[in-house]
Amino acid sequence: MREVKTPADLKGLKIRTQENDILLKVYTDMGGNPMPMAFSELFTAMQQKTVDGQVNPALIASTGNYDEVQKYITDVAAVYDATAISINYDFY
């Protein structure tokens, strides 16, 4: 594993992504080797160095103890993800 500061730093790194055509293309275009796999397999895959990194929010890395198996965290900001919060007016 190594620190990622530019897209060129992804060259050759095996990055776990969700099975999503857009993410696969984005990380391939940046030189990485995206590897779709189930999230439940990720910690072990990082432990065994089957993958070099992951595509997940920082909160996942923090709460999942990924600091035990990864040295760096980088906000690549490769895709935009919007979240809408809605609530029933009567409940509010």
Summarize the structure in words.
The structure is a single chain. It contains three helices and three strands. It has helices at residues 21-29, 42-47, 58-63; strands at residues 14-17, 33-36, 53-54. Helix 1 (21-29) links the parallel strand 1 and strand 2. The longest helix is centred in the N-terminal third of the chain and has 9 residues, at 21-29. The radius of gyration is 15 Å and the shape is globular. The N and C termini lie far apart (47 Å). The mean pLDDT is 89.
Descriptive labels:
3 strands; 3 helices; globular; 23% helix; alpha/beta; 92 residues; 3-stranded parallel beta sheet
Outline of this structure?
This protein has helices at 21-29, 42-47, 58-63; strands at residues 14-17, 33-36, 53-54.
- How many helix segments? 3
Structural class: alpha/beta
Total number of strands: 3
**Mean pLDDT reading:** 89
General form: globular
Low-confidence stretches: none
Order of strands, widest sheet: 2-1-3
- The helical percent reads 10-25%
In whole angstroms, the N-to-C terminal distance is: 47 Å
User: Beta fraction of the residues?
Assistant: 5-15%
**Rg, nearest Å:** 15 Å
| Element order: H for helix, E for strand | EHEHEH
Largest sheet: 3 strands, parallel
